[in-house]
What we know:
The structure is a single chain. The chain is mainly alpha-helical. The chain has a single domain (9-224), classed as MetI-like fold, CATH 1.10.3720. It has ten helices and no strands. It is elongated, with a radius of gyration of 21 Å. The termini are far apart.
Amino acid sequence: MNYHFDWTPIWAARGLIAEGLLLTIALSAASLALSTIIGLIVGGAATARSRTVRACALFFTETMRNIPLLIHMYIWYMAFSFLRLPAFSCAVLGLSLYSGAYVAEVVRAGIGAVGRGQMQAALATGLTGLQAMRLIVYPQALRIIAPSLASLFSQLIKDSSLASVIAVGELTYQAGAIDGQTFRTFEVYITISLIYLVLVTAASQLVLLIPGARNEAAAGRFADA
C-alpha cells in the first residue's frame, strides 16, 4: 500500500470541523437533557402503583426502543414535515425519544434498587409521593445508575452522527463534505474518530462526577472480577 497521508487539507478545513463539533456538542447536550427528563418521568411512572400508568410507561419504552433511530429521524423530518420543524429540532426529538426510553429502563431499575423502606420512611415524615421521589429516592437511584447512564449518554453522542442523514451539519456531515472536496478519506475520518473519542470520553467522565457514582462503578468492576 503506497498511500501517502496528507493532513494539509484537513488543517485547511479546520473551520468546518470546528463548526461541526460545536453543532454535535449542542445536539448532544440538548438531547441528553431532554432524554434525561423523559427517562426520569417515564422511569418513575414504570414503578407507580397504578397499572394504567405502568402500562403507559411500558408502551412508551417498548415502542420507542423497537423503532430504529434512523426511522425516528425520518419520521420527524419527513412524515411530520407539515410541522416545518428545523432539521436540528427533528434530530433532537428523534434522539431524545429513542434514548429516553433506554434511560427510563435504567431509572426504573435504579428505583427498584432503592429499598422500599426509604419511600415508606419519607411518606411517614409527611412528604408527598412526588416529594419523596424527588428528594429521597431519585438521588439514591441516580448514584446507583450513574455508570449505566454514562454508557447510554456515550452512545447518544455517537448516535448523533445519524443526524447527518437529515442534513444537520454536525461532525459526521462536515466530514462527508470535506471528504467530497479533498478526497482525503483516511485523514478525514481518522480526525473525526479522534474527536469523537475525546468527546465521548469527556462526557462519560462528567456523568461519573455525580457524588458516589465512581464508587458504584468501582464496586461493579470489582463484582465482575
